[in-house]
Amino acid sequence: MKGGNQYIIPFKGLKEGIHSFNFKIGKEFFEENLALEIPDGLLTAEVVLDKKVGLLVLDVKLKGYVELVCDRCLEYFNYQLNYKGQLFIKFKEDIEEPDENVIFLHPKEDLIDLNQYFFDCIGLNIPIQKFHPEDDNGELTCNKEMLKILDNYYFNKKHSNNENIDPRWSKLKDFLNEGNKKQ
Questions:
Q1: For residues 125 and 137, what is the distance between their CA atoms, to the nearest angstrom?
Q2: What three-state secondary structure class fits 48?
Q3: Over 29-40, what HEC string results?
Q4: Rounded CA gap, 148 and 179, in Å?
Q5: Model's pTM, two decimal places?
Q6: What is the C-alpha to C-alpha distance for residues 60 and 78, in angstroms, rounded to an integer?
Q7: Cα–chain center distance at 180
Q8: Do β-strands 40-52 and 76-91 pair in parallel, antiparallel, or remain unpaired?
Q9: Cβ neighbours around 128 below 10 Å, total
Q10: Checking DSSP bridges between strand 102-105 and strand 40-52, what pairing results, if any?
């Protein structure tokens, strides 16, 4: 692992109260976490840790951009990512499975590694369908040449001439046409 311990907070020596930490998440992080399918990006992570007896409360903010591949034209674009979340760390002898916002650690632990938490937050904030953002006029900013190529191969245009279509498939074409009218 190239990045080593760069997303670790050693909380054991901290006094009770508020402590701030800042992390940079960049290309190295995305190269180590290929499952995100993000080739590059630059995010800042601001973590405010409130240390209490038997509990750590982390307020986390991620802000910046990640580079994504457009599902429409296959070109890269920068997607702005802003995330705010809260993570609770509880200490318990019998470690339980973490839930959405709570992590359990053994009382003898003295640090928390936020690498997996950052991975999860970034992954959950990437849209399922990734498209270039529209410009100020509401126009697509995708590669115009690719859009022309796609337009030439679009199913309805390709089959709009009176080809003999197997009648078993014609009902499916009706469903497709109904779906396009609703959009």
A1: 26
A2: strand
A3: HHHHCHHHCCCE
A4: 22
A5: 0.77
A6: 22
A7: 29
A8: unpaired
A9: 5
A10: unpaired
Neighbouring-strand partners of residue 156 = none
How is the chain split into domains, by residue range?
8-124, 153-182
Q: How far, in Å, CA of 48 to CA of 84, rounded? A: 11
How many Cα atoms occupy the beta-carbon half-sphere of 81 within 13 Å? 28
State the DSSP string of 163-174. ----HHHHHHHH
- Edge-first strand listing for the sheet containing 102-105: 17-25, 40-52, 55-69, 76-91, 102-105
pLDDT category at 182 given cuts 50, 70, 90 is low
What six digits make up the tokens of 91? Answer: 């200490």
Give the pLDDT confidence of 99-156 residue by residue, as tens digits: 778 888 888 999 999 999 999 999 999 999 999 988 899 888 999 898 888 888 775 5
Task: Identify the bridge partners of residue 84 per DSSP, sorted by sequence position.
Answer: 61
Cβ neighbours of residue 14 closer than 8 Å, sequence gap 6 or more = 49, 51
Which contacts qualify for 132-139: CB closer than 8 Å, 24 or more apart?
132/70, 132/72, 132/73, 132/75, 132/77, 133/77
Which of 116, 144, 118 lies closest to 66 in space, CA to CA? 118
Q: Which helix (H) or strand (E) holds 155?
A: helix 155-158
Q: Look at residue 58 and tell me whether its pLDDT is greater than 60.
A: yes
Amino acid at 100: E
Q: Which two tokens stand for residue 106?
A: 């053994």
Helix (H, G, I), strand (E, B) or coil at 124: helix
